[in-house]
Specification:
alpha/beta; TIM Barrel; eight-stranded parallel beta sheet; two-stranded antiparallel ribbon; globular; NADP-dependent oxidoreductase domain-containing protein; AKR; Delta4-3-oxosteroid 5beta-reductase activity; NAD(P)_OxRdtase_dom_sf; Aldo/ket_reductase_CS
């Protein structure tokens, strides 16, 4: 695969294209200073990023949208140079809420369309103003999940021109098959955003998705910046240090690259889109510098062999949800 900093897009099954490297924009709204996402997205566009992964529940889509619009206004990019992924949150699964929620994202971004819109998780929560609804005992309040009905509402959004491509996130094989086998399916999911890094390479899910022309978008490709409730701390330490040490010993010196750059290159070289999140200007630049070297087939196999099926993001607080995706093998 001939990848360059200027052109590293791969095709989606609906005829659109997605850049293999993007910038994740999640930041804890309780601790991230205002304006951080705005400044970092503008810098990233100047560096060469064209793919941005955001969400309504990140509370910063207004800043991301402003950054994109400002870089369009100053002539750095055109709108069709930018690939923006937005997400449908758990409290908006009922079909009648899908389009208004997408329109809310578009209004916040002040853009006419998003390039990709995905179901963030296959688990529905009680609809309402609270993103994380709980009862008086502090227990999450779930809602009946009809993924096919939610998907049909998304298909209508695509037909209306509000979004170019449709995908999902954190779906297992069974949940993907539910959509793929839906009677009257108009638009199949083009992507599945899941955790993917050298200790969690997703071989079985990746092969299944390849068979169905579904692109894997890998989050946490070099670690996790989520708040601690989303993962187990001891596991994060073991995972990060383990494969980073191995990559540093084996490959970093050879290519004069960091273990993070090697890990990103590994995934993009096998067709997995990566969306490392960073609000550090130096790391944003650093993570983009993966197109001036290439791993050999032997090195790719060696990194694949590091797989330990260790997750950062287990979402154990929702493991009793009927559609919790991680009970299945893949």
């Amino acid at each position: 695969m001939n990848l360059t900093a200027e052109n590293h897009c791969i095709p989606l099954s609906d005829g659109n294209r997605i850049p293999l490297l993007g910038l994740g924009t999640y930041g804890d709204p309780r601790t991230t200073p205002k304006g951080t996402a705005l400044d970092c997205v503008k810098l990233a566009i100047d560096v060469g990023y064209r793919h941005f992964d955001g969400a309504l529940v990140y509370y910063n889509e207004h800043e991301v949208g402003q950054a994109i619009r400002e870089k369009i206004a100053d002539g750095t990019v055109r709108r069709d140079d930018i690939f923006y992924c937005g997400k449908l949150w758990n409290t908006f699964h009922p079909p009648e809420l899908v389009r208004p929620t997408l329109e809310r994202t578009l209004k916040t971004l002040k853009l006419d369309y998003v390039d990709l819109y995905i179901i963030e998780l296959p688990m529905a929560f009680k609809p309402g103003d609270e993103f994380y609804p709980k009862d008086q005992d502090g227990k999450y309040i779930y809602h009946h999940t009809d993924l096919c009905a939610t998907w049909e509402a998304l298909e209508a959004c695509k037909d209306a021109g509000l979004v170019k491509s449709l995908g999902v996130s954190n779906f297992n094989r069974r949940q993907l098959e539910l959509l793929l086998n839906k009677p009257g399916l108009k638009h199949k999911p083009v992507s599945n955003q899941v955790e993917c890094n050298p200790y969690f390479t997703q071989p079985k899910l990746l092969e299944f998705c390849r068979q169905h022309d579904i692109v894997i978008v890998g989050y946490c490709p070099i670690g996790s910046s989520r708040d601690a409730s989303w993962y187990v701390d001891i596991k994060e330490t073991r995972t990060l240090q383990g494969w980073r040490d191995i990559l540093k010993q084996r490959l970093s010196a050879k290519y004069n690259k960091s273990s993070a750059q090697v890990a990103l290159r590994f995934n993009v070289q096998r067709g997995v889109v990566v969306i490392p999140k960073s609000f550090s200007p130096e790391r944003i630049k650093h993570n983009f510098q993966i197109f001036d070297f290439s791993l050999t087939e032997e090195e790719m196999r060696a990194i694949e062999a590091l797989n330990k099926n260790i997750r950062f993001v287990e979402l154990l607080m929702w493991s009793d949800h009927p559609e919790y995706p991680f009970h299945d093998e893949y």
